[in-house]
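Example for tutorial group B:
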């Protein structure tokens, strides 16, 4: 019976999908990562021949060393990449949540670029008997550059399999109540931790999301609208008036117009206008990474202080906040409805073995 792949216990799996990270904060490792990332036509929609020369002749030689220094500034001692550390922790704790609630659900993590690759994660789940698969991106707001690209890679791998699993995917959860509640809890916890009563919170609350070229919006990508809705719902849940918070977009690259307002110029403008205390949070990043820890917690802080600001406070991402793990579970359960979340009993396996034996004899 053990030799027949059809007679193994079948299991349900949840695969968390994230963007990826270099394996080390070195120019060589960063170059490998950037080349894979920036070669994705979902990320850069420039004719391939033109982009090949720009990427290999200009960007990679210059940016690899610059980015490596930035990665080195946020690398965690003995833990490595923050994004990898927190993403793995989220997968581990989500798996433990299922187990504690009496379910047998496999949970793993796949990075779109770098390791663990999508193929490695899928092959591992397959070896463990996965027959039902839920794709759960760690991108709350949908974009073709992130969610769709990760789905593309899953579909590419599965296209090589003879026996594919049942498949479901979570497109977005930017307005999911459990997600918004987890964001609120993260912000409130930061405020309470520092002993900030209501009247002493920042003069302005900035929510910074990763930017995209404006043309993506014009072509129908819903990311911009979903970010604005997340920002509005979070602001309302915190009891803030519309003038007390602002949604901005960071990480602009190149000369093309991107989604506005841009984070860095907005922070500079607020400081020049007399804003003394500023709180900043990145709701679209479930795990801290280069874009949050270096670009927002370090670079943006320097901009604010250099232009007249006094108190700049970066609020960490959701990371392993228990309410975030609960939210991931809630989102997963919504999409797992109707699937077996346990392991087949010995009696069920025995019945399958008997049926298989009968079928095999009828063929021979």
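The residue assignment follows.
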């Amino acid at each position: 019976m053990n030799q027949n792949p059809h007679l193994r216990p079948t299991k349900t799996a949840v695969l968390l999908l994230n963007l990826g990270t270099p394996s080390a904060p070195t120019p060589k490792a960063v170059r490998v990562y950037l080349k894979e990332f920036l070669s994705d036509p979902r990320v850069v929609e420039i004719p391939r021949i033109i982009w090949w020369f720009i990427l290999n002749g200009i960007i990679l030689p210059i940016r690899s060393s610059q980015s490596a220094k930035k990665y080195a500034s946020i690398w965690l001692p003995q833990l490595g990449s923050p994004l990898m550390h927190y993403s793995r922790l989220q997968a581990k704790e989500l798996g433990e949540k299922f187990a504690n609630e009496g379910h047998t659900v496999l949970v793993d993590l796949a990075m779109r670029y770098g390791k663990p690759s999508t193929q490695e994660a899928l092959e591992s789940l397959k070896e463990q008997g996965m027959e039902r698969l839920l794709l759960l991106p760690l991108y709350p707001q949908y974009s073709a550059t992130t969610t769709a690209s990760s789905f593309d890679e899953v579909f590419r791998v599965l296209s090589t399999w003879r026996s594919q699993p049942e498949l479901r995917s979570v497109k977005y959860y930017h307005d999911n109540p459990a997600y918004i509640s987890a964001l609120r809890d993260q912000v409130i916890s930061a405020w309470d931790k520092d002993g900030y009563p209501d009247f002493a919170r920042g003069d302005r609350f900035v929510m910074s999301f990763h930017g995209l070229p404006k043309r993506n919006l014009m072509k129908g990508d819903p990311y911009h609208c979903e970010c604005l809705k997340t920002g509005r719902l979070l602001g309302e849940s915190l009891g803030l008036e519309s003038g007390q918070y602002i949604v901005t977009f960071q990480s602009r690259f190149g000369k093309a117009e991107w989604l506005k307002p841009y984070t860095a110029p907005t922070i500079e403008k607020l400081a020049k206008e007399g804003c003394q205390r500023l709180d900043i949070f990145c709701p679209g990043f479930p795990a801290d990474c280069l874009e949050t820890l270096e670009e927002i917690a370090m670079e943006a802080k320097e901009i604010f202080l250099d232009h007249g600001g006094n108190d700049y406070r970066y609020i960490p991402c959701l990371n392993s906040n228990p309410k975030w793990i609960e939210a991931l579970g809630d989102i997963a359960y919504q999409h797992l409805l109707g699937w077996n979340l346990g392991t087949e009993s010995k009696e069920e396996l025995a019945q399958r073995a008997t049926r298989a034996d009968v079928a095999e004899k009828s063929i021979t």
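Residues 177-315 form a domain with the Rossmann fold fold (CATH 3.40.50.1400). Compare this with the pattern of hydrophobic and polar residues in the output above.
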